[in-house]
Each structure stands twice: as C-alpha cells, then as structure tokens.
Amino acid sequence: xxxxxxxxxxxxxxxxxxxxxxxxxxxxxxxxxxxxxxxxxxxxxxxxxxxxxxxxxxxxxxxxxxxxxxxxxxxxxxxxxxxxxxxxxxxxxxxxxxxxxxxxxxxxxxxxxxxxxxxxxxxxxxxxxxxxxxxxxxxxxxxxxxxxxxxxxxxxxxxxxxxxxxxxxxxxxxxxxxxxxxxxxxxxxxxxxxxxxxxxxxxxxxxxxxxxxxxxxxxxxxxxxxxxxxxxxxxxxxxxxxxxxxxxxxxxxxxxxxxxxxxxxxxxxxxxxxxxxxxxxxxxxxxxxxxxxxxxxxxxxxxxxxxxxxxxxxxxxxxxxxxxxxxxxxxxx
Length: 333
Fold this sequence. Notes:
42% of the residues lie in helices and 19% in strands. With 333 residues, it is of the alpha/beta class. The strands form two sheets. It has a six-stranded mixed beta sheet with strand order 9-8-7-6-10-11, with helices on both faces. The protein has a five-stranded mixed beta sheet with strand order 3-2-1-4-5, with helices on both faces. Helix 2 packs parallel to helix 3 and helix 7 runs antiparallel to helix 8 (227-252).
C-alpha cells in the first residue's frame, strides 16, 4: 500500500491506501479552531502544529508500516513552512522503511478525489475551487491537462474567507458565510443589496474576485446592511460569476463528465447551480465525497498510487517544495 502525507496548509493528514483504492487507515487533524482566533492561517503557527500532529498520527498507523511500498507527500503548492513539515516526515519515513518517495501536486490530488475508489474517467472537465485556486480544466483522453480559465487575483474560496474576516465571522469563512446567507434568505427579509457580478459581459475566460470583495468592504463600512444580507448578496454574485464564465466554457467544450473539486466545492448552493448547468449541457456531474472535499491525505494517496504505477518515484534530493505550481501540461495517466 501507499502511505500519504498532506500538510499543504492548516490540516495535518495521513492515509494508507491499498492498490485496489481501499483505505486501510485515514486520519486528519484540523487547525481551524486555533487559527480562527486570528481570522486566517498563521503560517509559522501552522508549521509548529504540523510538527506536533504528524508524528502522533503516524504513530497510530505504525501497524501498517511493513506493507508500505512508497511514501507519497504533497510538495506543491501551499505554504512553504507547512509543506516542509510533511516533506520532512516523508523523507524520514522513507529512510526508516527503505521505500521510495512520490511527490504529489496538491491540486492534482483534488482531481483524484473524484476517483478515490475507481479508475479515472476520461475525458473530463473540472472546476477546481481550492484555497487560493480557482480554475477550469480540460483533461483529454490521454489524461493531459489544459487550463481553460483561472483567476487573475483572489480565488472563490479565498474571497469567502476575506468576507468572513471583514464581518468578524471567524475562520474558515466558506461554511459560515454560506450559513449566514441561508439564514437571511429563509428569514424573508427584503433584499435591497445587490453586488455587480465581476467581468459580466467581458469575453475573457478569466475569474476575478477582488472587485467583488471591495464591494463587500464598502457595504460593511456603510453600516446600512446586516451581516446576513451582505453574505447573501456576496454569495449570489460570486456563484453567478463562476457560472457565467463556466457556461461560456460549456458552449465551446463538450464534457461527458464534469467534476467539481476543492474545499469550496462543498458549498451546497454552488453544487445545486452546477447540477442545473450540467443538466442543460448533458454532462454528468461528479463530486468528491463531502468528507474529502477539503485538504486530505486520501486524495494524495490515490494520486500517489497512480504515480507509483507509472514509476514516478524520486530521491530525497529531487523531492523539493514549491509554494506555486502550474497544472498546464500535467498528465494524470
């Protein structure tokens, strides 16, 4: 089996996956409650917490170590100090167990979260909304990735976190903004606040959330609107922005299968709107299980198995971290 480690941001996670994709062990320790005090992730604190949590989780997985054939670890993209924690643990285990290393791109892991228990279905379209990333991808029949659209500034998920911080709603912002928006919608209160959908009518296949974030800031500073109304107006505009550009992609591309991945894909309003869009264009919509939408080692293990099968292992010297990465041209087969 493959042992996988994920520590790209503020979640410490370890998984052991057999070659038939069944999980023998999975555990995740989140730091959300600790970072919520600061309204966002504090990199140095995240690194210290990874250093504490990863050895403890690995100790609980020791019974499986004799069956491990390789160590898969996230090495890009992410917070440098967080990535170092996972990569250091992976290198130490590699030496101790005498097995090779497999470097896994975190974003590639999210794509594999659609296929945790099966082989990859191709061709495939993907909306990736994870952390600081928002992009639309096309995977051809050979598994080659082409980036069709991406954000030029803030990401979808990142903008939710920043709106939550402006409204003092805590961290992470995605779930709490969604809850506030839902409560306001269900209250039946008048909806006088509307935000402009970014790049509406612009022919560029590009996302941009910085302007929308500024609209929220001005609404907050005005003191005229409740937190729920601001959240509802923001969420509506943000999702319409995703759908506006995505519909243009669907008009030029034909996807038999279309997946949505990343932590922000857990947003139920987004899921509902995407279901309707895929129905309109005759695409089968694929989701990762809600448990595995956010950062986790199970998806890294699944990607690690695919790379190990292809012989894509690396030495300690070759395993380097990278805070940024580009999926263009990467192959999943």
